[in-house]
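Thread: "does anyone have the structure for this chain?"

Original post by V.I.:
We have the sequence but no experimental structure in hand. Need at least a predicted one for the grant figures.
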Amino acid sequence: MEDINVLFSDLSIEVVEADPNSPGVFVKAYKPETYSEKNLDDYDLYSIIRCRRCRSISIFDVQLFKVKRTLRSLVSRILPSRFKTILKRAFSMDQRSP
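Reply from O.Q.:
Generated one for you, tokens below.
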């Protein structure tokens, strides 16, 4: 939600709400009469591809993400549920570590 507030900070924000049905956000905002576009070049957005905040991603980052996603999907189809649960716990702990 922090990123959404920054991205739309040059508008007058009335409401920002998390989507209760899926990952996402609803924003109700309007452009003020004295509109001035905010420069976001120095702001690090959270990247799903790199799992951290960054200013840019490379083609290599995108390709690596696609390979990981494909492998995860393949392993998910092959492994029994019990092992998938163990792996999810292990990898979610890795994501939380700095």
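V.I.: this helps a lot. The two ends are 21 Å apart (CA to CA).
O.Q.: and Residues 57-96 form one domain.
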